[in-house]
Design brief:
heterotrimer; A alpha/beta (about 550); B mainly alpha (about 300); C mainly alpha (about 290); A: about 550 residues; alpha/beta; 5-stranded mixed beta sheet; 4-stranded mixed beta sheet; 21 helices; about 40% helix; globular; B: about 300 residues; mainly alpha; 2 domains; two-stranded antiparallel sheet; 2 strands
Chain lengths: ~550, ~300, ~290
């Protein structure tokens, strides 16, 4: 035993000497990523390096450092050096919140932020002046926010953070496949068309396509299915006539990814105003329904919603239609087999992207809009192995505006629900001499030029209202399609300052409300089981039965 | 003062002088552990326990809630199906871990103690999951019962067969199986060590008396290692409501309520909780501690009182 | 005369053989799968590798380069340094994590002051308390007393007596007759001499085994170093970042399995070399009082 302990101690001692020479504050032992310039003022910026990457921040950094190269922010120094800390795990959500007392970063671009917590704990600086003062583009950041964002972001009348990127999930489709296999509905060839001939026809000819969900010809959604019926007719056609697998999704994370899709479908059905009721509990609900033996029956009367009866919102018809959509996919086996294995999101993307090459085409992938960025390596590998034809720039993907649950909703604006709670803020206790610099930099990131640059580099939108030039050099076809949808849609930012909402935020995260007391995974529930048939109606009823009046009053009584 | 009291007073002084060395030794040894406990446990966690008696509201901050959190916690425990299931799963898993896992650990240790065929090999292999990172084994197991199983089963049946963790009828069994059959490690090691430390001549006498292997174990060996068994029972029962059954590794935060344990429930809720939600979670924690503690001491007492006595 | 095989032993043999086969199959499969091209794996998880992709290990090893933010800029800590960090972290934590419960339980077991029983009760109580939201408080305390982001700070945090090893040591000490120490005292030995020269050698196997078990535990632990020593990344932190990575390269199963193997193999080697010590017989008695 002595020898063992001696051996271990010897190892520890040797490396303690190494450790002393290289103290555990990480200041040595590795190569630095950027040369520290002691003649400049450093500003430490953290960026959550997920699907949106950090390239955009490096671009801002380059411009900002150049624009302010001769400015003095600290005595004896000239210019500024933006020190970027780009990382993932532990740098978002409650992990970041817990680290705030010990972080040295000063400006933050993160996600999954419950910002009221940060403000209550004194972590976020009041940046009212940043948001409400005129920027170098002669606009205020506040003017780029929606009315709902302004209402939900102000705490005590002041702003403490600014929305960062927009994030939503949807049905992403292979435009090349749709074109090559003629999967677009033809003009007058879809049941929803005003002059439908009675025969379903498909096409790939521009100008010969159906109106699509927006009910107008000549727009970005032409030829796409306008209703659920058209959508599933298309899926049946793909599978049975064309040997195309309609859908793929990640098996490992199917519960959360599919929950995002359910939330997105429900939002599209409900519309922005109705969706916001789920967070502000203040308004009139118009789409409440009860379960019948064959489906649902919409309530004849609208219902006034307040804190005391928020449980009624679990009867929103949008939830049912979303579940019904999912049920149809599963019942008809319109999905790839890997959807119920341990396939990661990356694997699902790979399978989707390679499917055409392997002549086992898959038409659509259920994913967040960041998926193409995550798959950049796959595009590159495909180009290297199979030729430039398969590179990202030469392939065309799009995001499909959701078809409408019922034909009467054709023409309604699509509604997107944000799902990543991404915000930018400044740490409250940074040194006073850096405050002006931090605010200046944050404002700089929100000029029209910076917003457009972000969208061009990342290929995805920021969660604000701004314009993109017609002549924009889009990162890919997909980026352009995402922008088209984003620009034409209403956006739901799922947050409010209602004390009831704030008192139980995690319970009101919309996509996580697709659960019953026995099931957290709608997709696993609805997967056809040989012994028992499960359906959307039952799951919808389960949601309602889980969120009863009694439970609501017991849980949230102190808020009304 | 009477002579008796004088004598008593002298004895106390003498006692103190006599024990001074021991007292000083105890203080020196316990100084660091005690300070460490006060700072890193009490200092950190007393606040967590106090949360059970508070509300948090973003306008007013913390306020005294009395027993309101407890009322809500008990209401949920009796009315929320998911929570009731989680309690049931925690208890069920613990019973299975004791009935199956501990029994098998004892039996396997006995086999190893008897040094039968391949005993050394089995001893090494059973300990491997304790050596390998849980993250590693969970990844491997997940892929094994997901990708590999699905492919093999699909080829055999000709139909698409989901992985074992994706199928309703096999999820729970798969999770239980993993937790029991990959959790022998330390128990086998410690039991076989305890068995090796027993008096071999007693076993030899039993052999001479013509007892079979089962009788030797029940009537001779088990009583001799019974104190070790008690230690493990205490550890097992204490862990009932903290065990997460590796659900995080299998399902991230999306495990079905039919599978969830209280440990998993509390952990995943805490990951996403805002400040205002912590008090209720802290309350659940306190309630389960108050339930577990007396059970632990009762079981220990009963085992000590009624268990086999080797001596 | 040859003994008749016992049914009990046959059943146990079969069960253990099944478990052993399962473990080995899984690890062998993982080993082969880690050498497959990711797209080959997507096509078939079962098939033998057609192309042996040793590059997966290079990619995985590369992932064990962890970026550490510092006041003077990011620093990339490479695999060698990470391995050193891991040995240092695991060794120190294991040593203190073994020594402190050992000596604490000795005092509680062998000295008959009633107040010492509180320590036993604390251990049992703490084993059953699930702690909610303690991380932020721990970080705050660590920072305020100046031990945040230091290896020695982590050692101090890990030198606690609460936990199941206290109970194991306690029961070991209870089995040692008091006559040993009484005899030593008569011979003039002090309390420290009795502890370090007489008693600890008697439970040396238990001590060594627990030390090595803890070393392995800390080798594999990622949560604490991730939060408390971000500047001193360990192998397990590297694997964790890897496992949750959605990056195109590291999100692929064969590369994740390769990363797992990288973490597993050193431990396997240590396990083989120190098997006897690691699985040495622990003399352990009971906690009957």
């Amino acid at each position: 035993m002595k020898k063992i302990i001696a051996f271990l101690l010897a190892i520890i001692s040797v490396f303690s000497l190494v450790g002393c020479a290289d103290p555990g504050n990480g200041s040595g032992g590795g190569r630095p990523s950027e040369e520290f310039d002691p003649n400049k003022t450093q500003l430490y910026v953290l960026n959550y390096d997920g699907g949106y990457g950090t390239d955009w921040l490096y671009a801002v950094k380059a411009r900002f450092e150049e624009d302010y190269a001769t400015e003095t922010f600290q005595p004896g120094k000239q210019g500024v050096q933006i020190m970027i800390d780009a990382d993932k795990d532990g740098y978002y959500g409650t992990g970041l919140r817990d680290k705030m007392p010990v972080t040295t970063n000063e400006v933050f671009f993160s996600e999954s932020i419950t910002f009221n917590d940060y403000v209550s704990l004194g972590y976020m600086m009041n940046i009212d002046d940043v948001v409400t003062s005129t920027n170098s583009d002669n606009k205020t950041i506040e003017s780029k926010m929606s009315a709902e964002q302004k209402a939900s972001l102000k705490i005590g009348g002041s702003y403490y953070c600014i929305p960062h990127y927009a994030s939503f999930a949807g049905i992403n489709y292979d435009i090349d496949l749709f074109n090559s296999k003629k999967l677009f509905y033809a003009k007058d060839g879809a049941p929803s068309e005003p002059n439908f001939t009675g025969t379903v026809r498909y096409t790939n000819l521009k100008g010969q396509k159906s109106k699509g969900p927006d009910g107008e010809y000549g727009t970005y959604d032409d030829g796409l299915p306008a209703t659920y019926d058209e959508f599933f007719a298309l899926c049946g056609y793909m599978k049975n006539a064309m040997s195309i697998t309609p859908f793929i999704w990640t098996g490992q994370y199917r519960t959360s990814y599919v929950s995002w899709i359910l939330a997105a479908l429900a939002s599209d059905y409900e519309g922005k105003e109705q969706m916001m009721l789920n967070f502000n509990f203040n308004g009139t609900a118009k789409n409440l329904a009860t379960v019948t033996s064959t489906g649902i029956q919409l309530d004849a009367q609208d219902k006034v919603i307040n804190n005391s009866n928020g449980y009624e919102l679990y009867r929103s018809a949008g939830r049912y239609y979303a579940l019904d959509f999912l049920e149809k996919i599963l019942d008809n086996n319109y999905y790839h087999s890997s959807g119920f294995t341990d396939s990661s999101a990356i694997t699902a993307q790979d399978t989707f992207l390679r499917s055409s090459y392997k002549n086992q085409p898959i038409a659509m992938i259920l994913e967040g809009i960041w998926w193409e960025n995550e798959a950049e390596g796959t595009f590159e590998t495909m180009a290297n192995r199979y030729g430039e034809k398969w590179a990202m720039k030469n392939r065309n993907f799009g995001i499909m505006p959701f078809p409408k649950a019922t034909a009467d909703k054709i023409g309604e604006k699509p509604t997107l629900i944000d799902n990543n709670y991404s915000y930018a803020f400044i740490r409250n206790d940074i040194s006073t001499e850096k405050v002006d610099l931090a605010k200046l930099f944050l404002k700089y990131c929100y000029t029209d030029e910076s917003l457009a640059e972000f969208t061009t580099i990342v290929g995805l939108p920021k969660a604000l209202n701004y314009e993109m030039d017609e002549n924009t050099q889009w990162k890919s076809t997909y980026s352009q399609k995402v922008w088209n949808l984003y620009d034409s849609a209403d956006k739901v930012y799922p947050f409010s300052q209602n004390p009831l909402y704030l008192g139980a935020q995690s319970a009101f995260v919309y996509y996580s409300t697709f659960r019953t007391s026995l099931e957290t995974s709608a997709i696993d529930y609805l997967l056809r089981d040989k012994d028992s048939h499960t359906n959307a109606k039952d799951f919808f009823k389960g949601i309602i039965d889980t969120n009863t009046k009694a439970k609501w009053e017991q849980s949230y009584g102190r808020f009304f | 003062m009477t002579k008796c009291e004088q004598k008593k007073k002298l004895t106390l002084k003498e006692n103190f002088k006599k024990n001074f060395q021991d007292i000083l030794f105890c203080v020196i040894i316990l100084l660091y552990p005690t300070i460490q406990f006060i700072i890193f446990y009490l200092g950190v966690n007393v606040n967590t326990i106090a949360l059970s008696f508070k509300f948090f509201d973003y306008e007013g901050g913390y306020s005294f809630a009395g027993l309101e959190n407890f009322k809500l916690a008990f209401y949920n425990l009796f009315n929320d199906t998911g929570l009731k299931l989680a309690v049931g799963n925690s208890v069920t898993y613990r019973i299975i871990a004791i009935a199956v896992g501990m029994t098998l650990s004892l039996m396997f240790s006995y086999y190893i103690y008897l040094n039968r065929a391949m005993a050394g090999f089995f001893k090494a292999i059973l300990f491997m999951p304790a050596v390998v990172s849980t993250l590693v084994f969970t990844i491997i197991f997940r892929k094994f019962v997901g990708d590999l199983y699905s492919e093999i089963a699909s080829k055999i049946t000709g139909e698409m067969v989901p992985g074992l963790l994706a199928t309703e009828s096999t999820k729970k069994a798969t999770v239980f199986f993993y937790n029991v059959f990959f959790g022998f490690g330390t128990a086998v090691l410690l039991y076989s060590g305890a068995m090796s430390g027993t008096n071999e001549s007693v076993m030899e006498y039993a052999e001479v008396d013509g007892t079979n292997y089962w009788q030797k174990f029940i009537y001779v060996l088990f009583p001799m290692i019974f104190p070790t068994f008690i230690t493990f029972m205490v550890m097992h029962i204490s862990d009932t409501f903290m065990n997460q059954m590796n659900l995080l590794g299998f399902f991230a935060d999306s495990a079905s309520p039919k599978l969830q344990t209280i440990g998993y429930f509390l952990y995943t809720k805490t990951l996403k909780a805002s400040l205002s939600e912590y008090p209720l979670l802290a309350t659940y924690g306190l309630i389960f501690t108050l339930i577990t503690m007396p059970i632990v001491f009762l079981v220990k007492h009963l085992l000590e009182k009624f268990g086999p006595n080797a001596y | 005369m040859r003994k008749k095989p016992s049914a009990l032993l046959i059943v146990l043999f079969v069960l253990m053989a099944f478990i052993a086969t399962m473990y080995i199959l899984m690890i062998v499969w993982a080993g082969f799968a880690s050498l497959k091209d990711p797209w080959e794996f997507d096509d078939s998880a079962l098939a033998f590798p057609k192309i042996w992709s040793f590059v997966n290990y290079a990619s995985a090893f590369k992932s064990y380069t962890v970026k550490v933010p510092t006041p003077t800029g990011d620093v990339f800590v490479g695999p060698v340094r990470i391995i050193i960090n891991t040995i240092f972290y695991a060794g120190g934590c294991a040593f203190l994590g073994t020594l402190v419960p050992c000596i604490t339980s000795y005092v509680v077991a062998k000295y008959k002051f009633r107040v010492l029983k509180i320590y036993y009760v604390i251990v049992v109580v703490c084993l059953s308390i699930p702690i909610i939201g303690g991380t932020a408080s721990q970080l705050r305390i660590a920072k305020s007393i100046g031990i945040y982001d230091t290896i020695w700070g982590i050692w101090l945090m890990r030198g606690y007596f609460i936990g199941s090893y206290f109970l194991i040591f306690y029961s070991s000490f209870m089995m040692i007759p008091n006559s040993f120490s009484e005899a030593a005292k008569i011979d003039g030995a002090g309390n420290f001499t009795i502890l370090f020269k007489l008693v600890l050698p008697l439970i040396s196997k238990t001590f060594t085994t627990i030390l090595l078990i803890l070393f392995v535990n800390y080798w594999n632990e990622y949560e604490t170093p991730l939060m408390f020593t971000p500047s001193v990344p360990t192998l397990a932190v590297g694997l964790y970042k890897f496992a949750i990575s959605a990056s195109d390269e590291y999100g692929k199963t064969p590369i994740q399995l390769a990363g797992s193997m990288i973490l597993f193999i050193p431990i396997l080697i240590m396990y083989i070399c120190l098997q006897d010590k690691l699985m040495g017989n622990i003399s352990m008695g009971g906690i009957k009082e």
